[in-house]
Structures are given as structure tokens and as C-alpha cells.
Hints:
This protein is an alpha/beta fold. It has one domain (about 1-210). Helices cover about 30% and strands about 15% of the residues. It is built from seven helices and nine strands, in the order H-E-E-H-E-H-E-E-E-E-E-H-E-H-H-H. The strands form three sheets. It has a four-stranded mixed beta sheet, with helices on one face. Strands 6-7-9 form a three-stranded mixed beta sheet. Strand 6 and strand 7 (about 115) form a beta hairpin. The two termini are about 25 Å apart.
Amino acid sequence: MGYHLAGFEMTGVDIVKQPRYPFDFVQDDALEYLAEHGTEFDFIAASPPCQAYSITKHSHSKEHPELIEPTRELLQATGLPYVMENVVGAPMATVVELCGASFGLTATDLDGMPLVLRRHRLFESNVMLMQQPCECRDFKAKGFRVGGVYGGGPSNRDKSWKRGGYTPPASVRAELMGIDWMTQKELTQAIPPAFTRWIGEQLIASLEQVA
Length: 211
């Protein structure tokens, strides 16, 4: 959605059906599709599965594929501008780290307290992107509750959680992320559109300079 708001026409590709994806969608193996059709586009945004690199990877026994390196190879082979996204801790190169607090992604919690989104994600690109400093501490100093959108965790602020912090109630999560078309499970895997709009605007400026 962020890239769309920046001015791109989007086509999504995923091996799993995504009935709520709001743009053109192709159900296919993303790497195979990239190898065959990648050069048909102006730029490519990739989000390889993050579970193999997440801090929660030791909390379960399920094996997840490590696809950053093969994705990078295919992206570079296209010769196109690209952006690849993943979690902190993933083996990314030349990264920009973004956080919801940097974009002022806030909401009001059910008890009336102000809440800011703590969601750190890494972005690798062959286009120079500006860095955005995290502002979680600044918001916390202003009295904001700092929360995230995690999978399956509780939302009781008076306890400690193994999955990274306070998860607000479901009704608040969509507002924090700026996303109202996904299920709660899908939301845990999502990137706030504010992130990708900011990146997309830089990509468009770069493409216009080349043109």
C-alpha cells in the first residue's frame, strides 16, 4: 500500500493465496516468478520469510527457509532498483532501519493512554535511502506507551512477555499499523505503509533522475 501511495502500480506475488491483497496478485513461487518475470517491472520489493531470522526462532521447533541470499542474487540479476525487507538480526547488507515511532504511528489504547508503534525493520536496497532515527525513547519520555504487533502474545501490560513487549488489543493494532484490510494474523507479518511510502517516494525520485 505504501508503494502504491507513493505512485507505483503494484503487483503482488506469493506462494500462498492472499484474498485481501488490495492490488493485482499472482499466486506463484516468488523466487521462480522473479527469475522469469522480474525484468518486466520498474522496481522490485521483496520480503523473504523472516521466521528463520526472528528473535522468536528458538521458541519453536519448526524449520523455516533462509531465503535472503537467493532472493538477493535474483534481485541483483535483474539489474533493476530493488528493496528487500526483513527483521533486525537478518543478514542484510547496506541497511536502513525503520521504526513506527519515527513516523509518528500512534493510537489511543483502550484505557485512554497514548500508544506509539515500536516496529523495527531492516531495508536493503541498491538505491541510496535516507536513514530514519528511532524515536521510541522520545515518545516514551513524553508519556506514550510503547507497543508492537506480535503474533499470538497476550495484551496485558502488567506482565512481561517473551515475544518482545506489550501487544495492544486487537482493535488498536490495525490503527497503529495504518492497515484496516488484513486479519490479525496477517497484520503480524506486515510492514506499515508509512515505511514503504517513504521508501517508494525516494525510489520514484531516483527513477525520475535516471529517466
